[in-house]
Amino acid sequence: MSEVIYLTRERFEELQAELKQLRSQGRREIAQKIADARSHGDLSENADYDAALQAQEMLEMRIARLERILARARILDPKELPNDGKIYILSTVRLRNCKTGSIVEYTLVSPEEADFERNKLSVSSPLGKALLGKSAGERIRIQVPAGVMEYEILEVLR
Questions:
Q1: What whole-number distance in Å separates Cα of residue 115 and Cα of residue 40?
Q2: 89, 83 in Cβ contact below 8 A?
Q3: Which domain holds residue 15?
Q4: Across the strands, what pairs with 67?
């Protein structure tokens, strides 16, 4: 049985748009590249043809992956989640690193939406797993390759 993939409506729509673009424009562009490469003659020593075929394979793999994700997707509505002060997927949390004193803020999301540059942390990451179910005021300790990190949960936002 396939595992459900939780996505925000925004991310679901982004993936749908990407899939639509790849199926139409992406496939059309690859087909044109293959046709152009074929027109250069001998296919056995045609690097452009080989590159176009490889690009087509990568495109089809991405399309298949997006189709699998969207088929298993369940759209999360933040209004459906408990508002009891505990940390759940889609919670935004403010943390203080107990060693350095630095303060960070993350929103917990599914692995498919994780984006460290945008402070979107996967619930399946070590820190994400440690945060789930916790509340403001609690401390968590996680093992990382560099040792143990300790955070204090300052605030749970929505």
A1: 42
A2: no
A3: 5-76
A4: none
Same domain, 35 and 62: yes
Q: Is residue 67 a contact partner of residue 136, using CB atoms and an 8 Å limit? A: no
The total of structural domains in the chain comes to 2
Task: Assign residue 88 the CATH number of its domain.
Answer: 3.10.50.30
Q: Which of 39, 67, 68 is nearest to 52 (CA)?
A: 39
Q: Which two tokens stand for residue 37?
A: 């490469």
Looking at the structure, do residues 87 and 64 belong to the same domain, yes or no?
no
Whole-structure pTM value = 0.74
* pLDDT tens by residue, 29-44: 999 988 888 887 766 6
Residues 67 and 96 in one domain: no
90: left (phi over 0), alpha (psi -120 to 50) or beta: left
